[in-house]
Write a structure and sequence with these properties.
This protein has 333 residues and is of the alpha/beta class. 34% of the residues lie in helices and 19% in strands. The protein has eight helices and twelve strands. The strands form two sheets. The chain has a seven-stranded mixed sheet, with helices on one face.
Length: 333
Amino acid sequence: MWHRWLKIWIILLGMLAVVFGFSGTLRAQENPDRTEPFPPFRIAENLYYVGSKGLANYLITTSQGHILINSDLEANVPLIRSSVEQLGFKLSDLKILLISHAHADHNAGSAAIKALTGATYMVMDGDVSVVESGGTTDFQYGNVATSLYPPTKVDRVLQDGDEVKLGGSVLVARLTPGHTKGCTTWTMKVQEAGRTYDVVIIGSPNVNTGYQLVNNALYPQIASDYEHMFRVLKSLPCDIFLGAHGGYFDLETKYARLKEGAQTPFIDRKGYRKYVAAKEEAFRTEMAKQKRTWLHTETDPKQFSSGNPCFLAPSAVSRPIPGCQLPSRLAGL
């Protein structure tokens, strides 16, 4: 009897592998830059870039083993391994695996990397259920087949402000929710040419297409979480600006400058502030738009004409115009 069950179990595992592999292939085809190789390089001290053109991965090397931020798509695992080896390190020396947030393009490869290295997988509390369910509990993409991936056991559940330490390196996990419930921005300090620099690796400040910021039954606090996220990002000291996608911090341009001989092209304090401000404005604009749309469907449209200043300016979302009163049911959104 047990032989029969063993055969059934093997068949089921095979079917799952085919399903997840097919999903990963579709994701790669839709965004080819995500699996396009990019030259690995040292950013500062023991911090290295080992990602693709479109998806960012970071290797922090120490005498006691290494830390990797993000595992990306399953198709990216061989690319990550190759990048690590090109830099003269071994993926097998990986001790800790971290992620920016629980979307497939940043963590679908985690099961494979854990199997290859035995690394301890650490994830922010709000994203743990998503990671361990293979994406099925995600508030936005849980029913989207191409967004699912192999479920992966989390070894350490992180809270805001927790430190991850290895061989003298210290990373701090900052909860910056909204994009996902456990979206994490990583900070650390590095030394270069006798100076100490603050590194910020942004998780994601993006409001994805289809995100419901108003009256979201699956994520009621989504708007306030985005507000919290922007407060945190604006409070962080940042010298070296990085993120979960190379596009956040203009990877290609800065890498070109590095190859031309620039000593510190990734030091970009102004670029960090500008990027965060632009993303916050985009959030407020979308929030105001959704409030107007929701009110239009919930009430008499004549009460909310285009002449009402409450529904014209994005700033009204969190900084009401004097004399402008929003309905009480919108308080706190």
